[in-house]
Input
Amino acid sequence: MSGEVVRADVIDRAIDGDLVPSDSEVTFAQEVTQLARGVQLEVERAATVWERIRATPARSEPRSRFGFVHLPSFRRRTALVGVAAVLVVVAIVVSASAPTDAKELLAKVELGAIDPSAVGLARYAGELRVSSWIAGDGTRPNVPISFNEVISFESPNRLRLEITSAQANGAPPSVVIATDTATWLWTPATHTAIRLGTVPLGTLAFLAGSEAETALTGASRDYAVARDGTETLAGRAGDRVVLTPLPGSAVAGRLGKTTLTLDHQYAVPLAGRILDPSGGSLFEWTFVKIDFAPSFDPAAFVFTPPADAITSDRVSTPALGIDGPWGAVARAVSFRVFRPTFASSNLQLGYPSRDQDRLVVTYRSSTDLGAVLIIESAGTAGPGPGERVALPGGGSGLYWNDGARQHIVLSREGTRIEVQASLNVSRDDLVKIAGSLVAVSR
Output
């Protein structure tokens, strides 16, 4: 009996949250922007958001999981002309005077993520440092995941975001490339191309693919905002604002305050810090360089996955602090999904990924990105050679060692689950992982 073979690109998808870090990685209460309510609702929201934010001291509208639809989605829809007209009107309001009120500052960030030209943002390039305190299972690691980004953005929707781990034995370098037709997360080391779908543009382009991708999408709905002075970052004058979750909002009880330093001219968040409800850091970034008049090689924004690359679609945007990606994958596959709850200082759980109609997730160690690989699919674990082992919490699995990897195969509620591990992982930990699986709600 041999274990299921999964190529390195598939394994890497399970930790793509660590890349951006990603993925991701982490989880916010909102998933990727949905289009179910249609373009008309988005047009109406774009037309009224500025006046609503300026005039409404307290949030009175119902909670919603729908954020702004970013420009690439607008461009693919027949209502483009109507949307453009709305954005032109909003742009006039924005540019009429420099915003000084905290709500106006936040509105400018949101508008700049829909249509960068609305805030006068044509292009920018920069370097930033990012840290995340979120592991794939929603726990808080003792040491943050750190990485560096180099961003190139050109209005309306061209983006190149190069992501490199700042840690030894970190995830391999990746790049997010947004074109007129698609947005890809490309990891050369594993020959993996993941189609991301809608990502932030303009003022929030540097968050594309990260755990905080949805942190500021629709922030005016979920936060009260107040000014907190000024400061200079990366040679730019900035306005500092503090966002506090509103009672009853989608982030209340899950996130704490968020502090942003916004570029005074273009509203790009030059620095940010997202806290948990207890005041601990979840996600931080700081630009160390930024240029709003760079020149670009057009080839930097061109990408077509190689013919032999493994491509897939990301199911959802990672969410901070909750198991959003697990729920999203559970709704996208045909079988019951189970999440491991095993925790160890030596192994860190990554993000789940869908590979056609199966789930793949890894635990990584300091020396091995795929130390443990979990594969879930519809079916049952048939009989075969190996040793039957009892699992913590009840049930059993079939264990064997093929000389290269260890394996445990088991069945749960119509789902076949195979847990593979390198020989450096103890058999005891492998058994504990297999016994820690809990069902995920759809």
